[in-house]
Amino acid sequence: xxxxxxxxxxxxxxxxxxxxxxxxxxxxxxxxxxxxxxxxxxxxxxxxxxxxxxxxxxxxxxxxxxxxxxxxxxxxxxxxxxxxxxxxxxxxxxxxxxxxxxxxxxxxxxxxxxxxxxxxxxxxxxxxxxxxxxxxxxxxxxxxxxxxxxxxxxxxxxxxxxxxxxxxxxxxxxxxxxxxxxxxxxxxxxxxxxxxxxxxxxxxxxxxxxxxxxxxxxxxxxxxxxxxxxxxxxxxxxxxxxxxxxxxxxxxxxxxxxxxxxxxxxxxxxxxxxxxxxxxxxxxxxxxxxxxxxxxxxxxxxxxxxxxxxxxxxxxxxxxxxxxxxxxxxxxxxxxxxxxxxxxxxxxxxxxxxxxxxxxxxxxxxxxxxxxxxxxxxx
Length: 379
Description:
With 379 residues, this protein is of the alpha/beta class. The strands form 2 sheets. A 6-stranded mixed β-sheet has the order 1-2-3-5-7-9, with helices on both faces. Strand 1 and strand 2 form a beta hairpin. Helix 11 crosses helix 12. It is globular and about 65 Å long.
C-alpha cells in the first residue's frame, strides 16, 4: 500500500529544485489524515533548511479533488472512544492531537520562507481550504469547487477560516461561513481565496515552465509563469455567483442580533434566487449550535492575528468534540449516512449557557498547545 502523501523533488534547468507534495488518497478525495499532516510538517521543515529548494508544489492525486477536508471519520471514532482529553500527546488526546497538528501545519504554510504553489483543482473543502489558504500562490481551475461546509457536520469553519473569512469583501465571509455555500473559481478569486485561474489541462505545462524558469529571484519567476498561463485561461472563467449577490448578502446579514441574522437567512430558503435558496436551506438543516458558534467565533476573531485565531479555533474545536454536535453530524453524513442528524438544539432555542461552555478557553495562554505560533502574518 502506498503512503497517503508522496514527496519528490524536480530539478530546474538552473540547478535548483522544486519540492513536490502530492496528497495521495484519491478514494477519500484526499481527506487529510493525521499521518498526512505529520508527514507534510516534517518534510516542509526539512526542505526549509535545504538551500537548493526554491519553491514547493502542493497538489492532490486523482482528477476529483485537491482535498475534500479533514479525516472526520477518524475524529468521530476518537470521540466515540472518549479520546477527548486536553493533552494532545496523551493516549486519550487524539482529538486535540489531530486539531493541534493540523492547525500548526496550516500556520507553517502561511509563514513558510519559500513560495508555495497550491494546485487547487477539483473539490477543495474544510481541511483542504486550510492548505490552499496557506499557500503563497493559490491556483484554481474551471472545475474547482471550494467550500467551508462545517455547518452540515456540527463543527464551524476552522483551519484559519476565523481569520480569512473576516477578510472577505462585505459580508460574504459571514454568509459563506454560515451556509457552507460552494464557490467556483471566479468566486474564489473575488473573495480572496485564490490568486490565479488556470485551465486544469495546463498543469504539466505549468510545471515544465517552472522547471525552465530563472530561479535567481524565486517569486518573480513564479509569478511570470503563473501569469502567462492565467492569461491564456481567462476565457474559461465560470460565471460569478458571489459578486453579483453582494447586495443581497449584505441585506440578509444586516441584523440587530445573531438570532435575527440566522432567521433572515433561513427565511430565504424559498427565494427565487436558486443559489441563495440552496445556501439558506443548508443553514436551516445544519447544526443550530454551530450556526451561533460560527457568528460568535467570527466576531471574536475579527481583529486578531492568524496565530491567535488558530489558538482560539483549537479551543473551540475541542469543545465541539466534547459537548457539541460534531459526532452526531459525522454519524449522520458519513457513518450511518441517514442524513438525519439529531442536533442537540433547534433554531431559536440554543441556551446562552451552552454557547458559553463551548466558547470558554480550554487552556491558559501559557500552556496552550499552539503557544509557540508567532504572528508573522499582517492583519
